[in-house]
Specification:
400 residues; alpha/beta; seven-stranded mixed beta sheet; three-stranded antiparallel beta sheet; 16 strands; 21% strand
Length: 400
């Protein structure tokens, strides 16, 4: 046992600190900075986008209900269009973006496949344009609280250990790390994560292509309702995503499976080469907050007076969910909001809420709330909703 006594210098102060630079964090930081707040985005990698870019999950899933109605707006749509500003790789929805054709259940949904590297740089540029600061290569390793509010984040990077004073915080870490450090109630994904090993390859005949090896189990409750079967797994093992040694083993397994698959696919084609592999573990669900409200799978088409936006189900046409603000925070830490896959939903809905459009919707709401208040238990919901509306968000299904 080593006992440490540390004095950590506060190097800077921000109105809003966003922890995690995935799509949820990007949306949160842009939203806060555009409202004139001094905003810091903290990202441990050297590339924005999280799983959407460094993880090669380069499919911006639907903004629509599958029956021709767009349900996710604001930054969710803005970031989709940004991701293909210089062209889409695949799944380009002409009927939505170019105004041609129809929008019915027989047509393409409002989704695209984008280039990870271009999107990451464009997101960085958009953040800088908004006025937000970015700290790359930086981890949040602890929080300091005054009562039931966070007043500083302890960070580490190449400069060493320091602290950043904050008025409000958005946890967009994907693993709910900051909420956990701050003592907010959290819950784990009980099934764990299956192995995934997505990669890009290129050759003369097929060009540049994404190969998706593994992804996520179907949630057990969903299987019970559908009577279906679980998808085949790459290996007979699940990963919590919250243990350093385990994640390292997962990464090694991913690399082996990936290389074996590529070499088998390559065969005798000397023109085929492995182009890009994921540079972060492809973990989908790990830990989430237990918020003031838990959104349930059964609550599709339910109107919530405190809605901060809507999301659809990427797996099937029809379901639409209004997202209550209370799913983004716990009263135990009054100035902390969560975004992305950290939000308070049941185990089955988690697999819906973890994807890019949902991350953008909850990110914009969390960043906006953080810009408006440092006590989310007392925030005027009408003030928050009016601000979101002014920035392009549609809150209720009846308003589509």
């Amino acid at each position: 046992m080593i006992r440490e006594a540390l004095e950590t210098q506060i190097k800077d102060n921000y109105d809003v600190a966003v922890c995690g630079g995935g799509v949820a964090g990007i949306a949160a930081a842009i939203a806060a900075a555009r409202l004139g707040k001094r905003t810091l985005l903290i990202e441990r990698q050297f590339m924005l986008g999280g799983l959407a870019t460094a993880g090669l999950v380069t499919i911006y899933l639907p903004l629509c209900d599958g029956y021709g109605k767009q349900v996710s707006f604001g930054l969710a749509e803005e970031l989709l269009r940004l991701s293909i500003k210089h062209g889409a790789e695949d799944r380009y929805p002409e009927n939505w973006l170019d105004g041609v054709g129809t929008k019915t259940e027989r047509d393409k949904r409002f989704q695209v496949q984008f280039n990870a590297q271009i999107f990451a740089i464009l997101a960085e540029q958009e953040l800088k344009k908004s006025g937000a600061d970015i700290l790359y290569g930086t981890s949040v390793c602890a929080v300091h609280k005054e009562g039931n509010k966070i007043d500083a984040l302890i960070i580490e990077n190449k400069s060493g250990r320091s602290a950043v004073g904050v008025k409000s915080v958005v946890d967009a870490s994907g693993d709910c790390d900051v909420a956990y450090m701050a003592g907010a109630p959290t819950d784990l994904y009980k099934q764990g994560n299956v192995l995934a090993a997505w990669y890009y390859y290129a050759n003369k005949g097929e060009g540049y292509n994404l190969k998706s090896l593994g992804a996520v189990d179907i949630p057990e409750e969903e299987l019970k309702m559908s009577g279906g079967k679980q998808r085949p797994a790459l290996v007979n093992r699940h990963f919590s995503g919250l243990d350093g040694k385990e994640i390292s083993e997962m990464t090694e397994l991913s690399h082996k499976v990936l290389l074996d698959d590529f070499l088998a696919k390559r065969g005798g084609d000397d023109s085929m080469w492995l182009s890009t592999i994921a540079t972060i573990p492809q973990l989908r669900m790990t830990r989430k907050i237990v918020g003031e409200y838990e959104l349930k799978t059964s609550e599709m088409h339910t109107e919530f007076k405190t809605s901060i936006g809507m999301v659809s189900n990427w797996k099937k046409r029809g379901p639409v969910y209004e997202v209550p603000f209370e799913t983004l925070y716990s009263a135990s830490v009054k100035n902390l909001a969560v975004a992305g896959r950290c939000t308070s939903v049941d185990q089955t809905l988690w697999d819906v809420m973890r994807v890019i459009p949902c991350c953008a919707v909850t990110g914009q709401a969390a960043g906006t709330a953080a810009a408006l208040s440092d006590d989310f238990t007392a925030l005027d919901i009408k003030y928050l909703q009016d601000t979101l509306r002014k920035n392009g968000v549609v809150l209720h299904e009846k308003d589509i």
